[in-house]
Hints:
It is a single chain. This protein has 870 residues and is of the alpha/beta class. α13 packs antiparallel against α14 (359-379) and α27 (780-787) packs antiparallel against α28 (791-810). The chain has 31 helices and 27 strands. The chain has six domains: 2-107, 3-Layer(aba) Sandwich (MutS, DNA mismatch repair protein, domain I); 119-257, Nucleotidyltransferase, domain 5 (2-Layer Sandwich); 270-351 and 358-423 and 528-566, MutS, DNA mismatch repair protein, Chain A, domain 3 (Orthogonal Bundle); 429-521, Orthogonal Bundle (MutS, DNA mismatch repair protein, Chain A, domain 3); 572-781, 3-Layer(aba) Sandwich (Rossmann fold); 838-870, no CATH class. The relative contact order is 0.06. The chain is elongated, with a radius of gyration of 39 Å. Strands 13-23-24-25-21-26-27 form a seven-stranded mixed β-sheet, with helices on both faces. Strands 3-4-2-1-5-6 form a six-stranded mixed β-sheet, sandwiched between helices. Keywords: ATP-binding, DNA damage, DNA repair, DNA-binding, Nucleotide-binding. Belongs to the DNA mismatch repair MutS family. This protein is involved in the repair of mismatches in DNA. It is possible that it carries out the mismatch recognition step. This protein has a weak ATPase activity.
Amino acid sequence: MMAQYLEIKDRHRDALLFYRMGDFYEMFFDDAVAAAEALDIALTKRGKHAGDDIPMCGVPVHSSETYLLNLIRKGFRVAVCEQLEDPAEAKKRGSKSVVRRDVVRLVTPGTLTEDSLLDARRHNFLAAYAEIRGDGALAWVDISTGAFHVLPCPRVQLGPELARLGPSEIVICEAQEADPAGFVPEFRDRMTELSRASFDSSSARRRLTGLFGVSSLDAFGAFTLPEVSAMGAIVDYLDITQKGKLPLVRPPVRESLRGTMQIDAATRRNLEISQSLSGGREGSLLTAMDRTVTAAGGRLLERRLSSPSRDVEVIRDRLDAVSFAIDNRRTAERLREELRKVPDMERALSRLGLERGGPRDLAAIRSGLTQAETLAETLSAEPVSTLIRQNMGFLTGHAELIDLLDAALIAEPPLLSRDGGFIAPGFDGDLDECRTLRDEGRGVIASLQQKYAEMTGVTSLKVKHNNVLGYFIETTATHAEKMRALSDTFIHRQTTANQVRFTTLELSELETKIHNAGGRALEIEKRLFETLRVAVLDRAPAINDASKALAELDLTTALADLAVSENWNRPEVDQGREFLVTGGRHPVVERALRKQGGEKFVANSCALSDGGDGAAIWLLTGPNMAGKSTFLRQNALIALIAQAGSYVPAESARIGIVSQLFSRVGASDDLARGRSTFMVEMVETAAILNQADDRALVILDEIGRGTATYDGLSIAWATLEHLHDVNRCRALFATHYHEMTALSDKLVGVENATVSVKEWEGEVIFLHEVVKGKADRSYGVQVARLAGLPPAVVKRARTVLDALEKGQADNAARPKAIIDDLPLFAAQPPAPAPAAPKESAVEKKLAGVSPDELSPREALQLLYDLKALI
């Protein structure tokens, strides 16, 4: 056995080997040590190798998915080694023969299909990047849904695209001239190297045509050599990991970089589109917008927000669909009720294609297609939009498959086919007979006994059973002659002192059937399951189309529900360059305020329009804590949401197509790569200035704040000029450098705006209102006091600030003179509070006096007495 283990392990050195031993997957040697630590399970030993104990650990087969998930999340790959024959068959070759085993699947992060290993509302992409003669391409597939895409992708664009997709695993060529991970270091730990042969374009083309059963890829599009190479590498990797059982993959869809809004990794992180800065979903735009009721609809929403369209007609069709759902609320609510019953057909179909599915996956297909027919009927009498009408055609035409599955399956089938009991009674006569024999054997024997008694006229005849003869017919000796007279039917077996025993061919056959009924029933169910699986796979393209149509309906009605409940409105999206938002709101912040106690979000408007092809920039000044960053982010998100095809959180919006969205907001460092906060800020700013075109929307916050004041001001000044003169884009530029407000007089595309505040009795009140104009103060000291700095520090800060501002106003005080006046260590600890004074004799005397009760003479005398006490 150990020789077999070592031989299999030698072929899978980079993976933990789950070696099937009966009801357990066992691991040995270094695999056992690593797995025991990662899974926090007991490490034991089994036998010896080269004189040393062999470390061993194991996990139960029935709960192995939980352990697999933990190992995958911790960066391991797992080779699953199964028994390929029954142990009884192995014994026929000799008592010491080893059961034949081999790896049936290599489990990696990008090749998961089990529901327990996946997030139902997120795609699990496996990507591949290929380069040929300087041209690059990126392909990606989700084998749990069958989605397959490819994109021409120069290396400089690799980071943004991977950030958009968030693949679990990336396949690269081990022989590439330059390391792609150098361009995307954040994805380095997700990269898997394959040999050059896996990326060979000629071999790749053969793999792809073989997978899709076509002679040429021309029917799917005109693919470049790098695109074919990347797609072929994915197919080769799937062949390696799935051991020849290729998943159901749809024909590849070729995307274009110009088809979607380009958003780089830093912008996605800053805007918290699909996950918050803390890494979770809560606090992200996706969570704030997700009202979908199906898993496929949730995945579609994430795709739309990650890849907003730049096609005006596509966007308008999506908005028309949402408008239909808003205008027909009663119909939309009925649709949502029916959609709640729709299971995840895409993933069920994928598991069936990989032979990992079970009866519940068949039931999911049945239920999903049934709901599709119901939804189509609901919509049939409605004046639906173009997009909904296009999808309605995919919801019907499944009656034959639905009828087959409905007749074949019980209402609530078990998870695994090996459990049996999922085929409905009456569907298969042989199965019904086996079940009857298995479950009602005694009744069948009793019926046969009654039949024989009537045939012979011997009412005392009995059918009995023992371990020697099995089933037999027994009668007394006095009636034996009647039985012998029917010798064609009754065959003599045994005579005892008082009884004579017979059998019949029918009884012998029935005995065999009863003994084998349980196993036979299970075999029949497995055969029927395979028949049903093939029937479903024959309809796979139509099922996938229905699933996509259901997801589209789910997303449409979910966005309508969001718009109605949150008072979102339809944006106008066109090919112009205007960016006009009236009463815009930040959807995530507004939701958070409501959850925290109902504080109302202050809406603000934004107008970036030059009327031509020049720059349109707002230079935003104002105090800390006033809401500048929120204002910047909300306008970026409104553009993104509009081009995703949704209503937006604003009273109205007119969005000229945004080709690129850039955000440089917030402070962070990258110590692992030796980058300070300021260095990260400059790298991200450089990327914006080098890439932004005239249809980009850029939001920048506090450029230059990570360095010396004059350096920072110079960089911010030059950056704004470059955005205006070279990039000529739309931008929101927030800064504390009030000196920059003078640029509005110099640059025609720059306008000043500020976030207003009120001062009241020394307190700062943030109004969170953005108005035209400029701020002359940052109120940093006031914010510091609100943050809880010690009063002595706040007081000292005010003193230093007053001196600096006076020196600047006089234009005479030099920095050294100010420092001399305000020495670096001039801060003093606060003086101790004075001791409370002792009570004086005068005060003691007065404490007991009631003036209203004194006569004039008594008052005069009191005055003399008090004077005497002084």
